[in-house]
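In this section we walk through a basic example: taking a raw amino acid sequence and producing a predicted 3D structure, encoded as discrete structure tokens. The instruction is simple. Fold the sequence below.
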Amino acid sequence: MSLRIYGNRSLKTLPGQATRPTVARVREAVFNIWQGTIDQCRWLDLCAGSGSMGAEALCRGAAIVVGIEQSPKACAVIEQNWKQVAKPDQSFQLLRGDVVKQLNRLQGQQFDRIYFDPPYASDLYVPVLQLVEQLNLLAPHGEFAIEHSPEYELPDSGFSIVRQKRYGNTALTFYQL
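The resulting token sequence is shown next.
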């Protein structure tokens, strides 16, 4: 299976719904909301799945994309997709493993845009929100977007909610410091 991103570029995905790529409508909405802030940004893609959000960020000029994904098969697809779209002046790094454990490896780094799309039924929301805050991963003027089920109420955190959107079976909550 493949999907299309910015510039009509085709990306590979894994068969089935194991990595559940962010649907085009939601992906487009995120990049419209963050329009004008992607060029030269530092992007963090948590539970990267097919890598479509990171690939889209690279296509739109992100300077650095870092992704975390647990599935070895998904990581192979992400690497291919990001190599395909990255320009020579862009860098990317993919960390394989549990998102909570891998986040600690990013201590000392900050990101302008963080996108978190875990399996909706997972118990990752609280620990990831806490770690992003504790490790100071969000840059001072950055934003952190979390994709989740509309029925799920995200926990309170040290971040401020700046907007919430709903797109069918997908909700997005955007945070700032």
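Looking at the output, two observations stand out. Residues 2-176 form a domain with the Rossmann fold fold (CATH 3.40.50.150). The radius of gyration is 15 Å. In the next section we compare this with other chains.
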